[in-house]
Design brief:
about 350 residues; alpha/beta; TIM Barrel; eight-stranded parallel sheet; 15 helices; 8 strands; globular
């Protein structure tokens, strides 16, 4: 995911049980012309962990060259994105727009397959289809596998849906049924808890599950799912002290690895993620939006968690949980932000029992 799966985020997810992480999706054209921004996002995972580089484009030569660059930095997998619904991507007939050009999509897979060593799998992520009149996931996946794809990930929404509505499981199941068993199929979309994970696997027959937005601020989900798969007890949600420690780890990785001009934004993002559902989290996020210095943001976050831990020693962690913000208030807040005023819906404190 662009602006999400950077090295700090991936490292935290890996440390908490994610089996494999993917870089942000990177323009093949930008990589091959040496664009610093794209090159700077092709970060290998820490400590020699296996990772995948995800690239996108519609020119076979550019994709082939970008794939070679991914292998050079140590990628264990080269993944081609044919699922992004963003207008800036589909306007260039890339991402999910390729689902309307299956012959070209297959040509791109074949070009990348020829360009990388046989030991490096070439994989593809795509959607259920372009829109409800073009639900071609199964046929599309078959063409890609025939061209050399070694694994298919299916997001259960169409391009027309974007990220709205609910992800459908039927297209993922249709891909699993259409492909040989030796080709892994990965299900993706709306997996934010154990129940959704089990439903995805149970109803689609997929071999693995890709989690994106569900891990933002909740990397512990990977730990829970790993325990489930190994038949071990659920470690449960993190206590406040662990949430603090993992935020501190994420923030330290941002300071160490993120480009200087991005640190302020990335640190604000970590504060927003890890304070979600905590007492006074809304106030923290509003305060963080006015702080421009990265060091000051780290101090602000440390003080927030330290104060909460002090309060928890008296009332317990449960006393600091908050109920989900009222959806009407959230809608009002969004509209106020569109008018230029940064207002966030209140998160009423849930009384401890």
């Amino acid at each position: 995911m662009e602006a999400v799966t950077d090295l700090p985020f991936r490292a935290v997810c890996e440390e908490l049980g994610a089996a494999l992480t993917f870089t942000e999706f990177l323009s093949a054209e930008a990589l091959t012309r040496g664009a610093a921004k794209a090159l700077g996002r092709m970060w290998p995972s820490l400590d020699g962990r296996r990772f995948a580089v995800q690239i996108f484009g519609r020119e076979p030569d550019a994709l082939a060259r970008a794939a070679g660059m991914a292998v050079d930095v140590g990628a264990a997998i080269v993944d081609i994105n044919m699922g992004c619904p963003a207008k800036k991507v589909t306007a260039g007939a890339c991402g999910s727009a390729l689902m309307r050009e299956p012959a070209l999509a297959a040509e791109l897979v074949a070009a990348v397959r020829r360009a990388v060593p046989a030991r490096i799998p070439v994989t593809v992520k795509h959607r259920a289809g372009w829109d409800d009149s073009c639900l071609n996931a199964a046929d599309f996946a078959r063409a890609l596998v025939d061209a050399g794809a070694a694994m298919i990930t299916v997001h259960g929404r169409t391009r027309a849906q974007g990220f709205s509505g609910a992800a459908r499981l039927e297209p993922i199941a249709s891909v699993r049924a259409a492909l040989p068993r030796e080709i892994p199929v990965v299900g993706n979309g709306d997996v934010k808890d154990v129940a959704a994970y089990q439903r995805m696997k149970g109803e689609t027959g997929c071999d693995a599950v890709m989690i994106g937005r569900g891990a933002m601020g909740n990397p512990w989900l990977f730990r829970t799912l790993a325990a489930l798969e190994q038949g071990q007890p659920d470690p449960g949600p993190p206590a406040l002290a662990e949430r603090h420690a993992v935020w501190r780890r994420h923030a330290a990785l941002v300071v160490e690895h993120s480009p200087e001009k991005m640190r302020q934004h990335e640190l604000r993002k970590t504060l927003a993620w890890y304070s979600r559902g905590l007492y006074a989290g809304s106030a923290l996020r509003q305060r963080a939006s006015t702080v421009g210095d990265p060091t000051a943001l780290v101090v602000l976050g440390a003080a927030f968690f330290t104060d909460l831990q002090s309060a928890a020693r008296t009332g317990g962690d449960a006393a600091l949980a908050t109920a989900p913000a009222d959806p009407v208030a959230k809608s009002v807040a969004r509209n106020l932000r569109r008018d230029g005023r940064r207002v966030e819906a209140e998160e009423p404190c849930t009384a401890a029992s």
